[in-house]
Amino acid sequence: MNKIKVSPSLLASDFGRMGEEARRIIACGADWIHCDVMDGDFVPNISFGQPMIAALRKYTDGFLDVHLMVREPGRYVEEFAAAGADMITVHAEACDHLHRTLQQIRAAGKKAGVALNPATDINVIEYVLPLCDMVLCMSVNPGFGGQKLIPEVIEKIRRLSARLRELGREDIDIQIDGGVTEENAAELRAAGVTCLVAGSSVFKAQDMAKAIAAIRGE
Ligand code: DX5
Ligand code: ZN
Questions:
Q1: So what's the pLDDT on residue 128?
Q2: How far is the CA of 140 from the centre of ligand 2 (A)?
Q3: What rounded mean pLDDT belongs to the chain?
Q4: Residues 79, 46: contact at Cβ < 8 Å?
Q5: How far does the centroid of ligand 1 lie from the alpha carbon of residue 100, in Å?
Q6: d(CA 36, CA 138)
Q7: Where along the chain do its domains lie?
């Protein structure tokens, strides 16, 4: 069983001070730092790219969990790896050749994740699981922070968790991203989530350390 991790999303942070924000979440007990890269094409919003990852790398030794909401991300894998990403997650829906893109991430020496939009079934990753360290289940339609969790994703996570157990691949993390709060985290962990991304609920909290601990289930 994987350790439960919390990966606060910098999308909800103060963009003018992102390096310090990354240090702050780690000081408040975050396990990973979730970096949402948006290209304005695969998703209807633009955030930041590889120069920001390189800048963050100079500020923190924390684990940079980079979520690429980018069409054909294989074009940029080597650049994100060189910038200092520790894990690179790509969307199944955004890759014509998902298997090849995951091979590229592994060849760059990084952990590899596959993200699935709310409408995408878990069967699309069946044949790439040997190349996966994590499956990210989107619990909102990607592009924006502060949305409400789509409840159907909980059943999807139960199915994914059961399938990974069946295959003896419980080493693969199950990440949930979008609308995670202190209130719904327990149900998500019980469904099999091992890594919870949280943007607004961490950055808007009165006490960030307490919010992170509560989401982790402490
Ligand atoms: C959405 C991003 C999420 C987002 C989560 O496209 O992938 O990581 O920042 O934000 P909250 O926790 O506010 O839903
Ligand atoms: Zn994300």
A1: 98
A2: 10
A3: 98
A4: no
A5: 27
A6: 12
A7: 5-216
